[in-house]
Specification:
Strand content: over 45%
Number of helices: 2
CATH superfamily of the largest domain: Immunoglobulins
CATH topology of the largest domain: Immunoglobulin-like
Distance between the termini: 133 Å
CATH class of the largest domain: Mainly Beta
CATH architecture of the largest domain: Sandwich
Radius of gyration: 33 Å
Amino acid sequence: MLRLRGTMLAAMLLVAAACGVDRATRPIAPGDAPSLAKKAPTPAITDVSPTTASMVIGGGSTPFSVTVANPSSNAIYAGISVSATIVQGNASRDAGSAVPNCGGDGDGILRPGTGCAVPLTVAASNSANGTGTLTPGNAKLVISLLQLRPGGETTLDTRTLKVTLTGSVFIADLQLHFTSLEIGSSTLNDYTMTLGNTTGADQSLYVVQGYVVQGAVVHAAGGANVCPGLTGVVPVGGCTFDWHASAQNPQSETGTLVAGPATLRLDLVRSDGVTTALVERREVPVDLTSP
């Protein structure tokens, strides 16, 4: 009886061994190949400088340097770009973009084993593409490495930095309702100015002052307190108001304006009667005409 059991056990082991050999030598199905292939490395962001920043909403821009690299030994990547987005709660606004040109290979091309530092100018603005309203406080700057493909844009890599947003008063828009100024005329030449205020509080003591500039000659062109009612108070969010400019040759100012090309300079200043600080300046070409 024991001898019979031993014979049956040996037979079972032989069958199992034979089955095992069959499984090991079965060819790989075509559908299994992609899962077994090694994924090629893709371009990545290797460094961002600076690593944090303070940015003025609606104000100037901040320069960044984004280093990108292609670690692949044989793949060439084209259609590469870098973009920046400021995210704050539910608000998200485009903040800048750039296309790398590494080693003269052409815009947006990364050859195998190459990379470079990409200059990226970033600005925080509620007028940029996006949704929600950026406000003073902490926010995230998301820098993405993108590739444009036939099916659309693909994100290859991202870096997220902490930034601080601050508010400001600024000129958001300026529309002149004239193209020329008659020298010495009493005609009021109107313009419309829109100011923005992203500080989170009403801001006072703001004035717009105009000048006509022609070469070395600079003559006052009229000024006023800003915003409706000419109160000089810029409410939260900003305001739009109308004022006017003129071209004069007063005896109290040196130099003489003559017919020809000139520049209308409009300065937004904050003045408390003791000190005056220039906030922003806009310059627009105009033609001066004789009476």
